[in-house]
Amino acid sequence: MEVYTFSARPLPLSTSMGVVGVPVKRTVAPTKPKPFNLLADQRVAIKAERRKQMIKADQKRWREAATFRARPNIVTFREPFRPRIENHASQVNFDQLKRTREALRAVMEQERLWEEKQMEKVAVAKLRREQVHKAQPIRCYRELEPKAEIQITVPQSPRFLH
Q1: pLDDT (tens digit per residue) in 88-131
Q2: Residue 47 to residues 35, 36, 37, 59, 61, Cα–Cα distance (Å)
Q3: What residues have CB less than 8 Å from 14, skipping those under 6 apart?
Q4: How far apart (Å, rounded) are the C-alpha atoms in residues 147 and 139?
């Protein structure tokens, strides 16, 4: 028996020199994604930034409000308040105007009381006119005749003890 020997066929000329009439295959680089921005993401980021700023501002205000700052004592150095009395004539005019108003108010009150009395008198007179007694006529009904067929019941007292 003879040992088998391998013998390869020679390569065709087309592979060593390239295929005639077929263009060279170009390899495309893999896709490189570009970063993109959504409007919603931008709005959320802006709102988050504003919220952080508002929180910081609120915290700052609370800290400032919590710290005690006393004002300087000015009251002990000032002169006490004294009202100025310059227009004595205006005070007189005011008092006179006040008296005239009080007099007018008293006159108006008297007129109001007088009108109330008059209204009350008119109301009483009207009530008296309306409440005059008027006799009611006697009503006439037809006469009822007793039925002759039925006897009238004779009353008797009950006899409980016998």
Answers
A1: 777 788 889 999 999 999 999 999 999 999 999 999 999 888 88
A2: 22, 20, 16, 18, 21
A3: 20
A4: 24
Confidence band for 152, pLDDT divided at 50, 70 and 90: confident
134 DSSP assignment: -
User: pTM for this one?
Assistant: 0.29
DSSP per position, 12-79:
PHHHHH--TTSPPPPPPPPP-PPP---HHHHHHHHHHHHHHHHHHHHHHHHHHHHS--PPP--TTTSP
Q: Answer with the residue of higher pLDDT: 79 or 14.
A: 79
Residue 14 structure tokens: 């087309």
Indicate the SS3 state at residue 91: helix
- Compute, in degrees rounded to 10, the torsion defined by CA atoms 67, 71, 72, 75: -150
Contact present, 16 and 10 (Cβ < 8 Å): no
- The rounded distance, in Å, linking the Cα atoms of 24 and 4 is 40
